[in-house]
Amino acid sequence: MIINKPNMAVLNNGFRAAFNAGFRDAPVYWPKVATEIPSGTLVENYSWLGQFPDIEEWIGERVEKDMEQYGYSIKNKEYAGGVSVPRPSIEDDQYGVYKPLMAEMGFAVKTFPDLLVFQLLAAGWANLCYDGQAFFSDSHPMPNGTFVSNDDGGASNPWVLMDAKRPLKPMIFQNRRPFEFVAKTKPDDEGVYVQNKFRYGTDGRCNVGFGFWQQAHGSKQDLTDDAFNSAYAALLGRKSDQGRPLNLTPSLLVCGPSNRAAAYNVVKAERKASGASNINFQVVDVLVVPWLT
Question: Would you say the pTM of this structure is higher than 0.85?
Fold first, then answer.
């Protein structure tokens, strides 16, 4: 192929189409556990975390609750990736072999939030949430001086039970600038002039954080019927800072590959090995992700 502006425009459009196809067809799972929050600045402050909205009888003046000032914030980060294509490969009409690479780059962009969200979820026993405690902790402070736990302890591989059906989910995906496909193929571009390579890449700005710890219950106990029932009861009985039931309904069991069989045995098997009916059959969905080992 002759390297000129019209031919390069056609080539770049073809590579962009492959990128878009890879992006379009990639399956993603983070929306099951995280709420997407648009961002318009470097750092977003989530001072409202810690307060579940409440509706009560209107007697006298309207009761308005001030947002809790926990100072929890999420700073956007820059992420980028790219590939290079040798100029001789384009001149020799070998560009077709690079289309799958562009599609793979689109796939990587679409699934990148999965990596961020679930890596943070897996670190929930160490990383802090809005109240200064680990997201999964036995010491979440209440205004009356007591503490609440959303962690069952243990030393096995982790799993998480959560209410993921509400508008606000347990995790936050903060999106500042979506990833875009970029082509650097002008003859006077540095990469072309110095390295004799055309460069294709993508970059964006985003980050992730924790939402309401109340909506998730973590465990490193063996995933058995008893352990699941204990976590289910704890999540179902969780209350607000004011002591009212939060009306949480466990809806999703998140685990890693090592707990897949146990998870399906607990909530997807219609009958137990003994032949008895499984009272937890289909009570929640199961999501298996590789970031929870």
Answer: yes
Measured CA to CA, the distance from residue 69 to residue 132 in angstroms comes to: 12
Provide the 3-class DSSP secondary structure of residue 5. helix
The answer to whether residue 258 is domain-embedded is yes
pLDDT value, residue 94: 74
DSSP-based three-state secondary structure for 105: helix
- CA dist., res. 146 & res. 272, Å (int): 39
Residue 183: strand, helix, or coil: strand
Is 120 contained in some domain? yes
Q: Which amino acid is at 131?
A: D
CB 46 within 8 A of CB 73: yes
* Per-residue pLDDT tens digits for 219-276: 999 999 999 999 999 999 999 877 889 999 999 999 999 999 999 999 999 999 899 9
Q: What's the whole-number average pLDDT of the chain?
A: 91
Number of domains in the chain: 1
**Structural domain of 17:** 5-55+65-288
Query: What is the C-alpha separation between 104 and 99, in angstroms, rounded?
Result: 9
Could you tell me if residue 293 is inside a domain? no
